[in-house]
């Protein structure tokens, strides 16, 4: 083969012309950008919560993480609605969740209370942030795996990261609602924070939105309850957030019972002979 550089075809005048540049791909459409932009906004909210905690604006710090949780619950549904799911979006969502619901709550609670126990408090914060990262890494590793018993039954494995962050702030909710100093006790907060982190990486079956299906006859009542909860959040945000967390924890044994029941039904169906 000759080392002479390739040139384009000759023009009608016999002069050599440069090859036409390859057709460039168009940029991402707004449909693909919108879910990722919402995910980036959730990340910004979580990081801003850390900034508020540094300046001791505790209310705003927790509100920022709660806002990140609301945005996180929207981006995936919008991506599915617009048919704009992508591997990039999944990776960005996991990284944003690790910071907004792992690092941010750990630092906020450390600055709010457990910095009075420099060693135990910091280890508790580390444990929570690491557990959040491990949970999200496990989710990414299993995203294309068919062998997921909890998912096949309509449940989640462990406490989701946004809910884990909400549970971690339980002492703060109660402290704001009651002004009782014991809820800010660094030992209590450290133990609670570490225990919440362990729930995120546990193999406990927990409810997902798909597993909660109210009967058709009570759907109007369910809508009314959601409206009342929203109103309560505006009037008494800390009591309402604490109540939601208490209800979630109380429903965890029910989730285990229902998952065990569905698992036995699936095993019985598989054990039946074909035909």
Automatic annotation (TrEMBL):
Residues 1-24 are annotated as: Disordered. One of its GO terms (cellular component) is endomembrane system. Keywords: Lipid biosynthesis, Lipid metabolism, Membrane, Phospholipid biosynthesis, Phospholipid metabolism, Transferase, Transmembrane, Transmembrane helix. PROSITE patterns: CDP_ALCOHOL_P_TRANSF. Its EC number is 2.7.8.8. Gene3D superfamilies: 1.20.120.1760. The keyword Repeat does not apply. The chain crosses the membrane at residues 33-54, 120-140, 152-175, 187-206, 218-235, 241-260. InterPro entries: CDP-alcohol_PTase-I, CDP-diaglyc--ser_O-PTrfase, CDP-OH_P_trans, CDP-OH_PTrfase_TM_dom, CDP_ALCOHOL_P_TRANSF_CS. GO terms for molecular function: CDP-diacylglycerol-serine O-phosphatidyltransferase activity. The keyword Transferase applies. It catalyses: a CDP-1,2-diacyl-sn-glycerol + L-serine = a 1,2-diacyl-sn-glycero-3-phospho-L-serine + CMP + H(+). It is a multi-pass membrane protein. It is found in: Endomembrane system. It comes from the Bacteria. GO terms for biological process: phospholipid biosynthetic process. Belongs to the CDP-alcohol phosphatidyltransferase class-I family. This is CDP-diacylglycerol--serine O-phosphatidyltransferase. It comes from Altererythrobacter rubellus.
């Amino acid at each position: 083969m000759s080392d002479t550089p390739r040139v384009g075809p000759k023009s009608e005048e016999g002069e050599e012309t440069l090859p036409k540049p390859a057709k460039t791909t168009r940029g991402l459409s707004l449909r693909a950008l919108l879910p990722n932009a919402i995910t980036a906004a959730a990340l910004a909210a979580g990081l801003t919560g850390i900034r508020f905690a540094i300046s001791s604006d505790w209310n705003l710090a927790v509100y920022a993480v709660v806002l990140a949780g609301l945005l996180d619950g929207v981006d995936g549904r919008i991506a599915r609605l617009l048919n704009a799911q992508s591997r990039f979006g999944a990776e960005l969502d996991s990284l944003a969740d690790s910071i907004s619901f792992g690092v941010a709550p750990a630092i906020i609670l450390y600055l709010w209370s457990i910095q009075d126990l420099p060693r135990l408090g910091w280890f508790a914060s580390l444990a929570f942030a690491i557990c959040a990262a491990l949970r999200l890494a496990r989710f990414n590793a299993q995203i294309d795996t068919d062998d997921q018993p909890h998912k096949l039954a309509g449940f989640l494995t462990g406490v989701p990261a946004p809910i884990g962050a909400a549970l971690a702030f339980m002492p703060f909710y109660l402290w704001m609602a009651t002004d009782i100093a014991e809820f800010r006790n660094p030992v209590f907060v450290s133990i609670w924070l570490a225990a919440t982190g362990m729930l995120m990486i546990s193999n406990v079956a927990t409810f997902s939105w798909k597993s909660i299906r109210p009967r058709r006859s009570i759907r109007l009542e369910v809508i009314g309850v959601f409206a009342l909860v929203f109103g309560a959040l505006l009037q008494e945000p800390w009591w309402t957030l604490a109540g939601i967390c208490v209800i979630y924890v109380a429903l965890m044994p029910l989730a285990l019972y229902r998952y065990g029941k569905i698992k036995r039904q699936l095993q019985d169906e598989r054990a039946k002979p074909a035909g």
